[in-house]
Amino acid sequence: MRSILNKYSEIRNIKSNIKKYKYEFENHRIYTNISRCEKVGTILLILNTILLIMDLIVYKPMRAKTSSYIFLFYSHITVIILILLWFILLKMHKKYKKTLSLRVYYILLINISLYWCMFMALNNLSIGGQISAYLICILCISALLYISPLEAFVTYFISMLIFSLGIFHIVHDIRSLFSNMVNVVIVALFAYIASNINFKHFSQDFINNKNNLESKKKLEETNRKLKEYEKLRTDFFANISHELRTPLNVIYCAEQIMEENVEKSNFYDNTLNKYLDMIKQNSYRLIRIIENLIDITKIDALNFDVNFENYDIIRIIEDITMSVADFIKDRGIAIIFDTEIEEKIIACDLNLIERIILNLLSNSVKFTEKGGSIFVKIHLEDNKVCISVKDTGIGIPDCMQELIFDRFIQVDKSISKSCEGSGIGLAIAKSLVEMQGGSISVKSVLGKGSEFTISLLDISINDDTKNKCANQLERNYMKKVRIEFSDIYE
């Protein structure tokens, strides 16, 4: 009972949707039927031409004995003429856009085919007792054309009625008459059911296509709006970041001037120095936040420039590590640097490498308690330079390790305010690594520490002018360290 109700509900939904798109559906159905009728008409034209030739060659001697062969000959000529006229009218309709509905043309061809097959069947009934031509015709119509239930009922009922009258006129044997009538009724009923099923599937396909098109349009519109909103967001962050940078530079410059004046005047005041240090540290922190926002907008807009040059990656990592060690020497955390090789020249972006390593080291310092250790190691593996930053800090839960490189994700939001962060540092670091063709991964045990590993391609640029060896690099990392570590308070 439930399946019947579901079927009834499905039919009602199809009908309601068909009403919604009635004009479009009818046009689509008619044009599909016309297209198929053109193919059917061509086949009938070729078939009747072949049969006409056979009439002239094979059946002509039999006309004297059986008049049915004469009728057969004229029926082929008549059908050929009717189909040719049908094609001419259809072509004129397409060319001159006549007001006559195209529905008339496919119904006309159905009737030409149907009544020709009826005549062939009745004519053959008088010769050999077979009515297969009519039965095959209505089955082909039900399978090939999309006829509405009303059209199918009228077409099959009228043709069956006329054909039955013809059988009554020709057949006088009761058994043969009953057998033929049963065949006609059963096949006509089957053809009607098949037409309805065919029409239903055609309707359902049409509705599905319309729904898919509407869903696609809605999706495209939503996607377009999302792109607009994303562009607005990106532009907003870019503009606000640049707008914040100007007053921040003024504050930072004012703090430096005040600091210089205090030093020149030999005036020492603990409170004043404390507030100057607070201004400087928070200026660094704002600089870091603004730089991160600008980087995010550039990454999202695919507008981030990567400048590859040949550098000694061992020297770079060692210098950064030592600078951090000097900066945090009073925090009671040991930093150990270790490498399997003394020199390795690879193509990379120096500024990006500095930002990545400083970000990883600042995270390690941030989440490692006093007395802990941080290990920075470099080794070669599968034509890659692997740089690992390992600490003995709080670790990362298993459920968070896949999310840690997503934006605005923080492992422990209950961390003391002595260590703050925006949750975008690792996301930016991951993007900066991938821009250089590398990858970054994490291994961690909760309560025991974490290890971040960067893998960079072991390749170099074939240009001697771009080699920046160890003895050529003299960089002061302290300001960058202060900026990167600005969210770690004493």
TrEMBL record:
First-tier enzyme category under EC: transferase
Catalyzed reactions per annotation: ATP + protein L-histidine = ADP + protein N-phospho-L-histidine
Stored SMART domains: HATPase_c, HisKA
Domain Histidine kinase: 239-460
Ranges that cross the membrane: 40-59, 71-90, 102-121, 127-146, 153-171, 177-194
Protein known as: histidine kinase
Coiled-coil region: 212-239
